[in-house]
Write a structure and sequence with these properties.
The structure is a single chain. With about 180 residues, the protein is an alpha+beta fold. About 55% of the residues lie in helices and about 15% in strands. It has 4 helices and 2 strands, in the order H-H-H-E-E-H. The longest helix is centred in the C-terminal third of the chain and has 48 residues. The protein is elongated.
């Protein structure tokens, strides 16, 4: 234990280094600025552009996130529709033939029906409004899930691409 403390005390002081990349002057540490959608294009590499575009187009996880977004938006529309009156119409026709064996009482009868109904739920306690608002929030969260999945996927492809480029450079240097 004492040896560990002595070794740690004798280690050299860390050297101050400057990062190779200078953050932009308008960087938003609080997250108030919207991220650039196609951020990888700033590298100017056509192969990287094609790889990321292909991965975004063909990734099943991202497609699932898009489908969840469409589902959440449909749910939000359905929940929002509850705030408005609803009306329905119905109609029908029926033809009946009655055969009793007696020609005077045999015959055909035709019935027609037409109906209409309307309903509206008065939102005294705010249940309908809160339900619609919750569905809208779910849709917004699903939209952010799609963005997160796309950013994660594109960053993984870019990191792999740069790792491969670095390894190719190292191989070229060793040769």
């Amino acid at each position: 234990m004492l040896l560990g403390v002595v070794v740690a005390a004798c280690s050299p002081a860390p050297v101050e280094t400057t990062p190779p990349v200078v953050p932009p002057a308008q960087f938003s540490a609080t997250g108030t600025r919207q991220a650039v959608d196609r951020w990888w294009r700033c590298f100017g590499d056509d192969t990287l552009d094609r790889l990321i575009e292909r991965s975004l187009a063909e990734n099943l996880t991202l497609r699932t996130a898009w489908n969840r977004l469409a589902q959440a938006e449909a749910t939000a529309r359905r929940e929002g529709a509850s705030a408005y009156p609803s009306a329905s119409l119905s109609s029908g026709a029926q033809v009946a033939y009655r055969h009793t064996g007696n020609t005077t009482t045999d015959g055909t009868s035709t019935d027609f029906s037409l109906g209409a109904a309307a309903s509206y739920e008065i939102d005294l306690w705010g249940r309908v409004r809160a339900s619609a608002e919750a569905a809208r929030f779910d849709a917004r969260a699903s939209e952010e899930d799609v963005r997160t999945a796309a950013i994660t996927l594109s960053s993984q492809v870019a990191a792999t691409w740069f790792r491969l480029a670095k390894q190719a450079g190292e191989i070229a240097l060793l040769q």
